[in-house]
Amino acid sequence: MRNSAFNILRQGLTGNRGWPRTWRDRTPNRRYDVVIVGGGGHGLATAYYLARRHGLRNIAVLEKGHIGGGNVGRNTTVIRSNYLLPPNTQFYEHSMQLWEGLSQELNYNVMFSQRGQIVTAHSEDQLDSFAHRANVMRANGIEAEILDRAQLRRVLPYLDWSDRQRFPIWGAILQRRAGTARHDAVAWGYARAADRLGVDIIENCEVTGIRLEAGRVTGLDTTRGEIAADRVGLTVAGHTTQLCHMAGITDLPIESHVLQAFVTEPVKPLVHHVVAYGADHFYISQSDKGGLVFGGSLDGYNSFASRGNLGIVREVAEAAIALMPCIAPLRLLRHWGGIMDMTPDASPIISRTPVEGLYLNGGWCYGGFKATPASGVCFAHLLATGEDHPLAAGYRLDRFRTGHLIDEAGAGPFAWLQ
Amino acid sequence: MLRIPCPCCGPRDHDEFRYGGDASVPRPAPDDPDPEAWHAYVYRRQNPKGAHREYWQHVLGCRQWLVVERDTVSHRIGSVVMAREWQA
Amino acid sequence: MTRLSQGGRIDRSRMLRFTFDGRTLTGHPGDTVASALLANGIRLVGRSFKYHRPRGILSAGAEEPSALVTRITGDLREPNLPATMLDLAEGIVIESQNRWPSLSFDLQAVNGLLAPFLGAGFYYKTFMGPTRGAWKVYEHFIRKAAGLGRASEAAAWEAAPVRSDFADLAVIGSGPAGLAAALAAGAAGARVMVIEQDAVPGGRLLDCPEASVEAAWRRAALDRLAGMPSVRVMTRTTAFGLYDGNFLGLAVRDDASGIGALVQLHAQRILHAGGALEQPLVFPGNDRPGVMLAGAARRYLTQFGVLAGRRVLVHSCTDHAWQTAFDLADAGAAVVIADQRPMPAALAIAAGSRGIRVIDQARITATRGRSAIRAARVESPTGTEWIACDLLCTSAGWSPALHLTSHLGTRPIWLPELNAFVPGPLPPDQAAAGAVTGALTTGAAIAQAAEAVRALGFAAEAPALPDLPEEPHALTAPVQTTGRGKAFVDLQMDVALSDIALARREGFEAVELLKRYTTTGMGTDQGKTSNLAALRAMADRRGIAPAEAGTTVFRPPFTPVNIGTLAGRALGQHYKPIRHSPMHDWHLANGAEMIEVGLWIRPWFYRAAGPDAGAAYIAEMKTVRQAAGLMDISTLGKIEITGPDGATLLDRVYANGFAKLPVGRARYGVMLRDDGIVMDDGTTSRLTDERWFMTTSTARAAEVLSRLEFLLDTAWRDLRVAVTSVTDEWAAMSIAGPQAQAILTRALPDLDLSEAALPQMGVLQATWRGSPLRILRISYSGEWACELHVGARAGEALWRHLLETGAPLLRPYGVEALGALRVEKGHVAGPEIDGRTTLADLGMGRMVAKRNAYAGHVLSRRPALTAPDRLQLVGLDCLEPDKRLRGGALIYGPGQPESGHGQGRVTSVTFSPELGRYIALALFAGGMAAEGQEVATVHHIRGERVRARIVSPHFLDPEGERMKG
């Protein structure tokens, strides 16, 4: 059944008894052309575009728990395309354009809300570097604005404009098309749309081994039996290295780290944009339900535990109040952690691997959510054709050897260690 | 907060320390000309889920670099030795 | 009035006034806002999240889903506070929320009529047209309708400090188990902290009348604990989270202001004794004001002397609810019991003796009452009837408050006889006792607590058990009923059984999916009274046992915590440390405009030179170029290096060679990261054969020191070198300009500052007024210049002395002028050393042409780092006199389309008074190979296009004649 206002009315009058399952509950077949490991946003999007754009039908998505239980359901839902370096600029803008039509394409309201993202600047040098970024965006056909202090104050009157501000605000960069989306709905919408195209979505199916013959993938061992596959795509950010270990790849340029996320109790609309603090690690938006959703920096040591430490909770609270003092009386409702694949240049990996037939999509650091549609498109292209998608050719694994790094922050390898 | 028993200063909160990452990757000799060796040192990581040997520096204490054995799932800390005394 | 003339633990001798929605009401010390509202006969307290249905007070504790209010103190609005946890105080102003225009008449209650169309997840299925951008319009209205209370944009928070604390044993909860555990461990001499979220310790013992054995035991236990110096009982304190390293986050409410302070408690051992939360039954119309948990009604009676209803219907499946019925009847209420179970014989006798009517095997299938409950329809084997009531007490049993036990990953397990989850196997340094484990009687809790304390390793003896009366505690699994009207599972999020059924139909069966799709448990109460019911409803529909369905993961905090509490006093200027140079006070007293540079506060410019930075920096540059300037450079990182292998260390960490640096000389050096990218630059002076003085950039000082220490502690342990930060030991200033040498010679007449004694890059060591002084003949501005490093205490005196000696020629200058002077000389800084540039990119490739074995050399030779089209340093001359260059502008070469990423960018710009035009440093593809080309610098945002010529970045005095003096 299509999702529509008409069907909501019709179903509402008849006890809502006619709504079908959002995706079928499938048991795995013995063989697939392509198996995607990981039923998060990137995996489901990849399966959807494989079916939709490349016409493949014999596809499975394997998920060890339930759909969307990983980072797609844990992130702070920010979507933007304000990147400085090629190919990031074009890749994330392509993603943005896909977001702009995603609810309609999937017939599922992912609540993509283009409310604008603002990053504050706290020195003249920072404003210059924001100007550089904004110029690159404009010159690549992406809208961007620079606000001076007075302009920003009119937009965000609740920031700390007083003499008490430790790092006075000089201005900001604004991307109006940036915003947020309802993260769970992205996973569910892609799952539903992929399912409608015949993709098998198999939950509670954990991969326990990768079968190889003569350096090539032949299938997977899972908790629901052996599954043969010609091509396997990994979309298991956070656990990329663990899955690759199963295929004998033990030296990826990836470390797993925990990033915490926070939400307050719901309040009436207060924060109307996505706001990021340019003087430190802090960003915030308000969900449609009313909770202020925010985050900060990594916990700072390798971790596979999806929980955070109290020190970072305090740091993030301090940064929150430093930027917007009015947040102090609001109450933190919940905080949690997600496990991130962190790469040495903080850019992702969409790449073939040394094992033939095994493809890798990971290393999203803490920016994977906004990339979901473009990541799905590019990874589907790689899996279907064996060739890099032009937008993602820069995300190959070999860039660390050749030096073609994409280091937006210029922070250097594993800089979060310092 | 983790509590790291510094061999010099006793147990301290981890926010007194600076994290230095995987201690199992040996640094090539200063004059090692092999790009592969440096590539492995700078970029490649085992990233184990479980026991991890890693560097921490007690920056707000004795400033010693330490080698800490920590579980990356439970965050329980096992042995802690001074990096200068550690035998890989 | 529902306040009884006696009873309760309130101070009736004093009256407190407060306002609720503008009405002035009264209560007593010891009241909560909830008990005071009930005492004033107020039952309608708020409106629900989605349907705006009238809601009252369900509970007497932190689990409250419905009675959320806003407290207003001047400009400060604190929304969503449970009235049940808010201590009454004189004059407090309370407002109800989520209603318009008023609480009793709320226009958005129309949502209730649309409920059939607003089921779980309806918003995912619509609002997608007619255009792509339509969602923005819908969202505007949805956002306004959502949210609960209203926050203010004003900043009016009173901060409380964060405290660290330590305990051998943290006991979470002060009910029978918690008090017994504290007695046992305290007697064994352990440092114990008992943590109680309520204002009064005692937990469920407070439900017992003062004359009872239980109450007497509580009083005696508290007396004994008060006599134990190693035991602390913290009330109004919520253990909101358990974190790695056995850290408990505690939020301590000040009893006067209500503002919370954070305590980070490091506990060697933790005993979970937080009790269990009573659960409401699910039946149609179970959300009306006047529907209350049975235990809460009893608490309001015994603790606050409030009889919450005169005609009471008790609907439950637990023995404990009967005690409520008995106590309310004894206090004068007319009570009917409608139990879901077959008649419990022993209790029936006790009920009969009180004249209480009992209906067994009863189900409620409907209720009536617009703003408060008036009647409930009870179905039983004996028939169906409407029973009039003004209070409906319900109990579906208990859900252990096991939240903190699962914060570190311990999965709860299902206890069939309790029909609920209890803590799973805990690590050896944690234990649980009392109702949190399913031990529902006082006697069992006390006995279990002593056992748990011993298991945690304390040499504790079991406290003597009091002679407790028998406590009936049987229960059965609750039955959820449907019928006309919504049967609510989650009162705050307005999730009904019909929503659970829809989620099941659409495949959102896994417990996490159920939560996310229906929003069950996502409210401010985190589902403390709804998660179990939702789980049961889904399990029933799937035909599986609740244990099989599993439970969601509990996340901290246990109850919401103010963000201000977490931040403590790190507010405003205290957000980050502030660093001042030894000459800071002088700058302030002498007209410096200061600016934040990292953690430092530095002179930006001096107002004597001009009214703003733009005017002043040009004047200050002229002073340096034409006379002499003095700059405070104390912020430079300074590192002392000692030992026989110091030269080897320097030779390895700097890209350029340092092995042969002679004593008495300084050298400029650049460090690379191991990946071959430039990390930092600075100078190092050789003071003696085995002693060096290194300076780093202000920004990278800490990083450079740690890196040196790392290399020496790990890979290069064989080097005999020590490195020490001496940044704060030395005040540093730079004197520069054509008159600098003359002024310095006059100021320091005892020193030989001639070219022979102090040549370019020479180092001189002396003392000045008893303080060590190091003079380094180093120029950043390109003029004859020296860095003077003097013991920090003598810093201001030397600064004054130089300025007095040099007056009127010598003047101070700030960072704005410094930045401009270095652009004229083509020195790179932060905008160029941006973490992506190599030595060659910065025009310094020749420094290392013949060198190997320095850190970063191998990876700096990777193909992409040596490609000919890399962005490399150039200078730009502005070719349009009436225009200016701007930082951040893109550069396009001749004939290039002015789109995309450009061939480069402008990094640093200044007006050069010497040259009379704008000049800039830039990074341009191919670098100086394009020297002489005319390019376009385009600032797309400003709509500016300025022509410029690529020139050498050494704009001024490229031969370095001026430095020679």
What's this, in brief?
The complex is a heterotrimer of chains A (418), B (88) and C (965). Chain B has one helix spanning 35-43, and strands at 3-6, 10-13, 18-22, 51-57, 65-71, 77-82.
Topology of this protein?
The complex is a heterotrimer of chains A (about 425), B (about 90) and C (about 950).
Chain A: H1 5-13, E1 31-37, H2 41-54, E2 59-62, E3 78-79, H3 88-100, H4 102-106, E4 117-121, H5 124-139, E5 145-148, H6 149-155, E6 171-175, E7 179-180, H7 183-196, E8 200-202, E9 207-213, E10 216-222, E11 225-234, H8 240-246, E12 255-266, E13 274-276, E14 283-286, E15 291-302, H9 310-323, E16 331-342, E17 349-352, E18 358-362, H10 368-385, H11 399-402
Parallel strand pairs in A: 1-2, 1-11, 2-8, 4-13, 11-18
Antiparallel strand pairs in A: 3-7, 4-6, 5-6, 9-10, 10-11, 12-15, 12-16, 13-14, 14-15, 17-18
Helix pairs in contact in A: 2-7, 2-10, 3-10
Chain B: E1 3-6, E2 10-13, E3 18-22, H1 35-43, E4 51-57, E5 65-71, E6 77-82
Chain C: E1 16-20, E2 23-27, H1 33-39, E3 46-47, E4 54-55, E5 68-73, E6 76-82, E7 93-95, H2 134-145, E8 163-172, H3 176-187, E9 192-195, H4 213-226, E10 231-234, E11 237-243, E12 247-253, E13 260-272, E14 276-278, E15 291-293, H5 294-304, E16 311-316, H6 319-330, E17 334-339, H7 345-353, E18 357-359, E19 363-368, E20 375-380, E21 383-388, E22 391-395, E23 398-400, H8 403-406, E24 413-415, E25 420-422, E26 430-432, H9 442-455, E27 488-490, E28 495-496, H10 497-505, H11 511-518, H12 531-542, H13 546-549, E29 561-562, H14 563-567, H15 584-589, E30 592-597, E31 600-606, H16 613-626, E32 628-632, E33 637-642, H17 646-653, E34 666-672, E35 678-688, E36 691-696, H18 701-713, E37 722-725, E38 730-736, H19 740-747, E39 763-768, E40 771-776, E41 785-791, H20 795-806, E42 810-812, H21 815-825, E43 871-878, E44 890-892, E45 904-912, E46 917-925, E47 934-939, E48 944-951
Parallel strand pairs in C: 1-7, 8-9, 8-13, 9-10, 13-26, 15-22, 16-17, 16-22, 17-18, 32-42
Antiparallel strand pairs in C: 1-2, 3-4, 5-6, 5-7, 11-12, 12-13, 14-23, 19-20, 20-21, 24-25, 27-28, 30-31, 32-38, 33-36, 33-37, 34-35, 35-36, 38-41, 39-40, 40-41, 43-46, 43-48, 44-45, 44-47, 45-46, 47-48
Helix pairs in contact in C: 3-4, 3-9, 5-6, 10-12, 16-21, 19-20
